[in-house]
């Protein structure tokens, strides 16, 4: 029998403390396959830290894919998925269970524009990039929401009533109504447990290449990140200590193309 390498032994020692820490979403999921960490997910430099800073995160580009994500744009390969067919999603680091109450949402901006539609631009640093390449995309475009997980209905206002509670995988069937192209796909968990109306944001982005037959109207409604969230939003005003009976979801108010992926656990 092989003796475990020092690295493996160290990992075993570290595992319990990581489970008690906060979470990352380094694994992309396609159907039943959990891919290697950061194979398709863009790493960031924020470690396990939640983001809030008294709401400053809502006005920061770090709200998109987390602090320092731009330093890792070139690393992931895009996950190859088919709209209307594949189940996609994210798994936490080491299968850590989400123990903070609060919604999980997954959203995507429209694909980076292909060269052909960008021929006469004079902007030297165009975003979305002219290449259509997600590895050059900072997520400054318009984001639409494709998945969300909130509370049981009816909800008794408790932490246990969140459908996100104690889960480590968040998956949904990619809607058919998504145009072909490369995308960033963003997962966000907004922890609502801190006192009063403070929040903790955990977010991360995956690189995804969608194959699709869809050429209908573009996905929407959309928001910008930052810009689309405000401290006054009902979802962010939720006071989890006030025994709420209803949990408003983060913006945008509607999902694309319909609400079928709301609170749906596969
Ligand atoms: C995912 O599962 C569906 C059946 O539910 C299958 O048609 C498809 O080929 C699978 N995708 C991949 C990438 O294996
Ligand atoms: Cu916390």
From TrEMBL:
GO terms for cellular component: extracellular region. Keywords: Carbohydrate metabolism, Cellulose degradation, Disulfide bond, Hydrolase, Polysaccharide degradation, Secreted, Signal. It comes from Apiospora kogelbergensis. One of its GO terms (molecular function) is hydrolase activity. The lineage of its organism: Eukaryota, Fungi, Dikarya, Ascomycota, Pezizomycotina. Residues 100-122 are annotated as: Disordered. InterPro entries: AA9, AA9_LPMO. Its EC number is 1.14.99.56. The keyword Disulfide bond applies. Residues 1-21 form the signal peptide. Belongs to the polysaccharide monooxygenase AA9 family. This is lytic cellulose monooxygenase (C4-dehydrogenating). Its main location: secreted. Transmembrane segments: none annotated. Residues 22-242 form the Auxiliary Activity family 9 catalytic domain.
């Amino acid at each position: 029998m092989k003796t475990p390498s020092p690295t493996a032994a160290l990992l075993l020692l570290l595992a319990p403390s990581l489970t008690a820490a906060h979470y990352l979403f380094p694994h992309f999921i396609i159907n039943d396959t959990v891919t290697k960490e950061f194979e398709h997910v863009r790493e960031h430099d924020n470690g396990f830290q939640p983001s809030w800073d008294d709401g400053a995160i809502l006005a920061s580009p770090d709200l998109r894919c987390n602090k320092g994500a731009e330093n890792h744009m070139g690393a992931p390969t895009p996950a190859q998925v088919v709209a209307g067919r594949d189940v996609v999603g994210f798994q936490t680091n080491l299968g850590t269970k989400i123990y903070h109450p609060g919604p999980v949402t997954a959203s995507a901006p429209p694909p980076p524009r292909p060269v052909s539609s960008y021929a006469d631009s004079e902007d030297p640093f165009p975003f979305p990039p002219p290449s259509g390449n997600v590895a050059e995309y900072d997520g400054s475009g318009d984001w639409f929401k494709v998945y969300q997980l909130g509370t049981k209905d009816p909800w008794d206002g408790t932490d246990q009533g969140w459908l996100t509670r104690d889960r480590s995988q968040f998956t949904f069937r990619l809607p058919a109504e998504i145009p072909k192209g490369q995308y960033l796909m963003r997962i966000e968990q907004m922890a609502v447990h801190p006192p009063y109306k403070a929040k903790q944001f955990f977010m991360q982005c995956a690189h995804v290449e969608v194959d699709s037959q869809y050429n209908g109207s573009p996905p929407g409604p959309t928001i910008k990140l930052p810009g689309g969230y405000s401290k006054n939003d009902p979802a962010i005003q939720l006071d989890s200590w006030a025994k709420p009976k209803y949990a408003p979801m983060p913006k945008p108010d509607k999902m694309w193309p319909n609400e079928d992926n709301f609170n749906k656990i596969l």
